[in-house]
């Protein structure tokens, strides 16, 4: 048996149809309760026989010839995603969680009149059923179970969407469970994410890093320039912040002697949402003592390339739209100031005044940033002139000091810090520092941030006395990095951020 080709019918079922089908299915549920000997336990059995999984059978009998019989009896369970009833023989496709399918053949000769009639009357698309019977190949070469016994494991009271038409983006995002049932790509993205996380951990382990967990509820937010979410603890009668970054706690771990440390964590930033930003997102942060921003850039490139290989088998990945993108080789490293000067035709250095930058921005149509500083203007101008033309993965090096309060000043260039941003696919994927470990300078930077906060900059950092006290006990020279896991999936798969997050936040 072959399944029907894609239908032109709409993927979503109308509200009226849903209401009618739900009523019919609920009546079938009542019948199941009435007919079950152990109905006190509900409409469905606590367990059903399962001796094999659908993907395992498909692998084991991949070369079974059309019409062949195995003499092997197996019990499998799956969701009914196709059904055709034809007199004395019924066909159904059962789908496993990974999307693999096997055909169930329910015949009058094998199950008898009563069982065949019950199948026709009770089984609907979307139901989970268990079937037991001989593993065979149909005359058309479809791997099948010739059913001798069956049971409904769970009834779908609501109908599935049409699995042979595209789900709307709204349905895919809001009802991800339907997306996972209907689309191979949705399931593959979940698998890809798991492979990425496993690869990251494996690469870190190979370099002697330890994975830790840091607080998500914090008495003071820090580690990034971002607007936090605020909540309240009844037990402590205190306002708390959902973390915007784990940085300041991970650095405490380095102070304590965990020289190579990382965390894959959830962060929360009370900011806008678009194709590359989500208020809740997953981030990787890592710190390596006795390294710097060059060493941590090397490690970041290795992490990403290994993750691509784990998902795609190669560093040359194919995105969802068919674009082939090369993540291999050695990635370019460019200077922010030099690349801006070259692209704009105007020499811009750390000594360029705020007034000059403001005038130039107005001249080229770049909006004044909120709470303008030299660094904010430089970064806005760089995005205007340079970012749009970046194609290959590129480390953009050496940022203005006033936008990077946690970063060590450059060892040889005045007015900049040893920071890079990694751009892939035109968006920022990761950032890395030579970490600022001097508590005296760090306090001065925090004071400058506090002044910005006092002037209304909601993204400015506050003075964190506990973190400063940790630094005062001595932190070794360290390289650190942060990378969005959701964005890493975007770089490998070509999907938008709402596709890479299993259950994204939506209105």
UniProtKB/TrEMBL annotation:
Quaternary structure and interacting proteins, as annotated: Homodimer.
Catalytic activity: tRNA(Lys) + L-lysine + ATP = L-lysyl-tRNA(Lys) + AMP + diphosphate
Pfam families assigned to the protein according to its UniProt record, in alphabetical order: tRNA-synt_2, tRNA_anti-codon
Cofactor-binding details, from the entry: Binds 3 Mg(2+) ions per subunit.
Domain Aminoacyl-transfer RNA synthetases class-II family profile: 193-504
Enzyme nomenclature, EC number: 6.1.1.6
Protein name as annotated: Lysine--tRNA ligase
Primary residence: cytoplasm
